[in-house]
Specification:
mainly alpha, 73% helix
Amino acid sequence: MPDSIEPSGLSLLPALVTIVLAFATRQVIVSLFLGIVTGGIVLFIQTGNVADLNIIDRFLFPAIGSKGYAKILLIYLWCLGGLIGIWQKTGAARLFAEQVAKSWVRGPRSALFAGWSLGMVFFQGGTVSTVLTGSTVKPIADRYRVSHEELSYVVDSTSSPIATLLAFNAWPFFVASLVAGTIPLIPDEAGGTAFFFSSIPFNFYAIIAVISTLLLSLGWLPWVGKRMSDARKRARDTGELDDPQSNPIAIVPSEDHGTVGYTASLAEFIVPLVVLVSISVVPYIMDWGDYINEAFLGSVLSAMLVALFRGMRLGDVLGGFVDGCQKMTIGAIVLGLAVTIGTVSKELHTASFLVQAVGNEFPALWLPALLTLLCMIIAFATGTSWGTYAVVFPIAMPLAYALNPDPYFIKVCFGAVLGGAVFGDQCSPISDTTILSSMFTGCDLMDHVRSQMPLALAAAGLGAICSTLAALL
C-alpha cells in the first residue's frame, strides 16, 4: 500500500462486514470471503489501481503463502491433527478420558474443572492450549453432558489469558522486542522482558478471565449470561450438546474405539505430551532459545514410536496420522481466510486508524482504561493480539511516560495493553484461537462467540475498573 495513502474509516469496513455477516448468517467461510472482497474494493477506492480488485493476487496468495500461515498449517493443524489421529487409532485419548473420569471426574463441574486445569498446564500459547486442551477434555465433557458452549469458553478463556500470566513462552520476548528503547525505563530487550514479568499483576483482564472461568467450571459464578445459561440447561436436561441450529466443525469425535487387536496404554497419550512440554518449556526456562516447532514434531514422532514399540502396525500408525490431518481441511480453509482478513487489515492500516482516532490528549488517570478499550477494539477487528501489540505498545509506552513517568503507572498501562489485546484475540470470530477453540470442542463458531462474549465483556469491564483504581494509587 503506498505510503501517501492515509488510514481512514473505510479501513474498518472489511472487518465490520465479516463480523456482522458472521453474527447474522452464521456462515463463517462466506463472511470471511466477503470481508476480503470488501477489502479489495476499499483498497481500489483508495488507490484507483484496478489490480487491487484482484483479491487472490493482492491478499490471498501473500497471506496463505506466508511463513505464519505455513506454521499454522504444518504445526498447529497437521502435526496436532496427526497426533490426535494417532491417539484415536491407538485408543489412548479414550483411555485417558476413562482414567480421568474414573479417578476424579464425577459430573459436569469436575469435567469442566478438568478442562480448566489442563488449560493451566498447556500455557505455552493460545493456539497450543486450545488444541490440546479441547481435544483432550472433549470426550470427558461430552460424557457428562457439558454443553459445547461451556467447554469452548473454558478452553478459550484459559489459552491466551494464561499465556500472558504463566509467561514461560514466546510472549514476553515478542513484546520485549516491541517496547525496547521506547522509554528510559525499558532501555533494551532484557529490560522489556523484565518489565513484562513485573507487569503481570496489572494484567487484570487475564487474571479476571482465568478466575471467572474457574468459578464457572465449579458452578460458583453467579452470572453467566442468557446464552450460556440456556446452553447449560439444554445440555443437562436433554443431552443436546449443541444448539439444534448449529453447524459445528467437529474435529474430535466424542468416542473413538481404537484399532481392533491393539490394547491402548496411557504411555501413548502421556509420552507425546511430556515431549511437547519438555522441548517447548525447558529451553525457555534455561534460556536456550525457542524450540516450539521442534517440540510439536518431536511429539508426533514420539507418539508414532510408542505405538510401533507397543505392537501397532506401521500402516495403522500412518493411517491414523493421515486421518487426523484430513479432518483439518475445513479448519485450514477457515484459518486461511482469517489470516487473509488479517492481511487486509494490515494493508489498510486499520489498527493505525483506530489509534489515531483515539488521539493522545486525555488525563493520565483514564489512560489504562482507554488503552484497554483501544486494544479490545483493534484486536477484535483484526483477530490478533500480537498484531495489536505491534501497533499499540510503541505508542502507548511513550504516551504513558509523557503523562506520568512513575514506573508503577507505566506497569499499570503495560498490563492494560496486555489484557485488552487478549480480550479481542479471545472473542473475535476471525481470531485463530477463537476458531480453534470451537473446532476442537465441537462447538459452532458463532455459538461460541455469542455465548462467551457477555462473560468476556464483564471481565474486561472489571479489568478496566481495576486499572483505573490502580492508576489512582
